[in-house]
Specification:
Elements lengths: L1 E6 L5 E7 L2 E8 L5 H15 L9 E7 L3 H18 L3 E5 H6 L7 E10 L2 E10 L2 E4 L4 E4 H8 L6 E4 L3 H10 L5 E2 L9 H13 L18 H8 L1
Length: about 230
């Protein structure tokens, strides 16, 4: 099964194709340009250089959230458009579950962290053992103080991954909680892990239509909050 995966949840943007758990190709960019400008050229260039086509894909996958509201909207919209145009199923995966796959070979507790501002992070906890992941919490927006309280009694090595990893790492260390950062080349979200998470989801029958694919924000965007207050 070939899956085209998109990752736009933070500052970097990437795309990848996986077939039956093997990464065939990928493209990554972290230059500060907007995802609306960079995503599709990455996809088009990657497919052209590898002689692959959208029609050869069995599904279109995307990190559906949580993450940057703008980034998630761009990624999900692109995935919906590609899936609809090519008449392919879609797969929306948790950004946090995908990033946990970056370090699933490192035994311990994986602490996924994306900066949600105001001393909060988007977070999920996973246990990694012998390359296998087990989810311990749902995806959530949580205060760093509350997370530190939860982790204080955990004896397992805690490995922190994600674009909010350094923020989380520094807070936990200051709170006296031992932890370590994921290696630099594995710390950030990327479409390769989205593709692998999507392969697992597709194998579990979690395919969607383009119309059914929706973003997952965890909390309302600031614009919506202001509208509700008005």
């Amino acid at each position: 099964m070939k899956i085209l995966a998109l990752e736009t949840s933070a500052k970097a943007v990437s795309a990848a194709v996986a077939e039956d758990g093997k990464i065939l190709c990928c493209g990554y960019q972290d230059t500060g340009l907007t995802h609306s400008r960079t995503l599709m050229p990455i996809v088009e260039g990657m497919l052209k250089n590898t002689d692959l086509t959208i029609q050869e894909m069995d599904a279109i996958a995307v990190a559906a959230g949580p993450g940057s509201f703008t980034g998630i909207r761009i990624g999900v919209s692109a995935a919906k458009g590609l899936a609809f145009a090519a008449d392919k199923p879609a797969v929306g995966v948790s950004t946090l579950a995908a990033m946990a796959r970056n370090v699933c070979h490192m035994d311990g507790m994986i602490v996924c962290a994306m900066d949600a501002r105001r001393q909060q992070i988007y977070n999920a906890l996973f246990s990694a053992e012998n390359g296998c992941l087990r989810r311990l919490t749902p995806d959530r927006a949580i205060a760093l103080e509350e997370l530190a309280q939860q982790l204080r009694s955990v004896e397992k090595m805690k490995i922190i991954v994600g674009d909010g990893a350094k923020l989380c790492y520094n807070y936990l260390l200051e709170a006296g909680i031992p932890c370590r950062l994921a290696p630099p080349q594995l710390i950030m979200q990327n479409a390769m892990s989205v593709a692998l998470e999507a392969q697992a989801a597709a194998g579990a029958g979690q395919l969607l239509t383009a119309q059914e694919l929706q973003p997952v924000y965890l909390r309302p965007a600031q614009a919506q909050k202001l509208k509700d207050r008005g």
